[in-house]
Known about the structure:
The chain is an all-alpha fold. The protein has 19 helices and no strands.
Amino acid sequence: MGNSAQQAARPPYGILAVLMVGAFIAFLNNTLLNIALPSIMKDLDVDASTVQWLTTGFMLVNGILIPTTAFLIQKYSIRHLFLAAMTLFTLGTLLAGIAHVFPILLGGRMLQASGSAIMMPLLMNVMLVSFPIEKRGTAMGVFGLILMAAPAIGPTLSGWIIEHYDWRMLFHFVTPIAIIVLLLGAFLLKDKKEKVDIRLDFISLLLSSAGFGGLLYGFSSAGREGWDSPKVYGTVAVGAVALVVFILRQTKQERPMLNFGVFRYPMFALSSAIAMTMNMAMFSGMLLLPIYVQTIRGITPFDAGLMLLPGALVMAFMSPVTGRLFDKFGGRVLAVTGLAITVATTYSFSKLTVDTTYTHLMVLHAVRMFGMSMVMMPVSTNGLNQLPARLYPHGTAMNNTLNQVAGAIGTALLITVMSNRTEARATEIGKEMMQKLTVKPTPEVIAQMKQQIMMKAMLDGINHAFFVAAWIIVVSLVLAFFVKRTKQVEDAKKMPGGQELKARAAE
């Protein structure tokens, strides 16, 4: 069906509703786990560098599978893709819920990821073809409101469950809901797709997996292995080479698995760069803040979840507002304002102390989320709006892939920054304390000293990681000044470069 015909028809609200419920469950699952990380570290006896694999491993699978979604969306019906995605997600949730060792838990998470990797690009593509550009910001805003409800209730719900039950109950809670959504999809989704003569290029699939997977695995291993480890720089090098070969192969194919031609559209390329740098800083904050409030401050999981609730609610309710503002004013004003707020609040998080009040943390996090709510959806929508309809599956797949890669790199980078700073400061503080001793300390005193040293060192490490994150967001802020309102390129055969197309592409 052509783009104009699709937009002229009434949007498929039934299909969108089922897809959004499925995506909501996937989002809820992610936010449930963030608060649980310290409890999992203690119960399964793993450190921060290991437990981060529950996040980065999820991103790893997404980074490998999402590039294939452009092919899958063109090849198969919404019904088939949704049912496959929810089946994988449900099986992964079941496996994680019975895990008693970390590898099984990680396996369940990665199986969940294989389902969500299909879910989000599928939903985004349906949204893009269902609404015209002038209404797309508002539609994306409502979509954001529904999905942001998951981060709003997730941390608080997770905190309550962890205080009263084992962390595995988080997965037991999601399992029956996932099964119900799967059954709803089976009964309600009836769309059919004409047979499409398109085949998956397995060499491209292997190169994509090696490229994105190598980069993600290498950066994710850096927190535990160190940047000088052959495992780290070796896999990063292999990933980089494979990715270059993959890109070159895609540019020569008539029907590429992932069309890198989307980057010839300047606003799409710019929106991708802004989103990547934002994700590098955003995902890290999701790990650093729970570690600070629970490990250093001793705040209970439930209270930690309550602390994050106002910020998530602000982000959820701002989503439709920013959608309408985007339709009216475009993305630049929103992005610059939001990023300025995000830089300021992230820098403020680099000044945490052991006495920082609970209220201060809650308000600062809420303001930070307010800033982020003005950036992500408007910038992404602005970039996708410039693409011709035939490139929507490739644009959504590219955005989701790069966001996962950026999130994994940012998380690994800032966890490494935190770990290295913590280790260095622990050595310094230990030497200072030993120099002040006048008598030989008892074993009890030594144990107390070690605890104090690690608390002070970890606090300094977290502050330093937030400081680095603030500078990463500054890059996004600079790029945001170049954002322009876009119009869809109607002639899919012409690529930006000529004056005629440039005039149509941006106002």
